[in-house]
Design a protein that fits this description.
alpha/beta; 6 strands
Length: 174
């Protein structure tokens, strides 16, 4: 949580978002983000109004359905976001594991090609806000996780970075 707070604080200062008035920061993500949200909010209490969407962002399909609701009417200065861990999860309706996770019998929640298209659409929508965007790559999948294969996060992160770098080049940045 401190690393995220420091990164956001450095970004706020470097980007010059603090040009008078309140700085609005939105965090979008899953339970991992939920775990560091309070710490980031506390660390940046003097610099920014840090908020998160209600609940869990889930996979990119859910993000596409709910992003406008989460953005609301607020003028965001910075949006820190992540999708991937729920997308690469295998689920089976008969599994007794939390969230029906089952990497043996289950189907992947959002296949990689769909993840790429969904993330492209989500980033395009986030860019329209005019906020500085910060993407957090997906966390490591531990060995033995019942619904995810260790190493799949590398594939999803590679696709995410491809999408982000491609959009950056198209905008003439970098």
């Amino acid at each position: 949580k401190q690393i995220v707070a420091w990164c956001l604080a450095a970004w706020l200062m470097a980007a010059g978002a603090a040009q008078g008035g309140e700085i609005n920061v939105l965090l979008i993500g899953d339970s991992i983000m939920g775990g560091y949200f309070k710490g980031v909010q506390k660390e940046l209490a003097k610099e920014a109004n840090v908020v998160r969407h209600p609940g869990n962002a889930g996979d990119t399909r859910n993000g596409l359905k709910r992003l406008d609701e989460w953005l609301g009417d607020t003028k965001w200065d910075v949006i820190h976001f992540n999708w991937g861990l729920h997308d690469l999860c295998h689920r089976h309706p008969e599994s007794k594991e939390m969230g029906n996770r089952d990497k043996v019998r289950g189907a992947i929640s959002v296949p990689l090609d769909e993840y790429e298209k969904n993330l492209e659409a989500l980033v395009a929508r986030l860019e329209k806000t005019g906020a500085k965007l910060i993407f957090a790559t997906t966390t490591v999948v531990p060995e033995g996780e019942p619904g995810r294969h260790a190493g799949d996060e590398l594939k999803y992160n590679a696709v995410a970075l491809k999408v982000l770098c491609s959009r950056k080049r198209r905008r003439g940045v970098g």
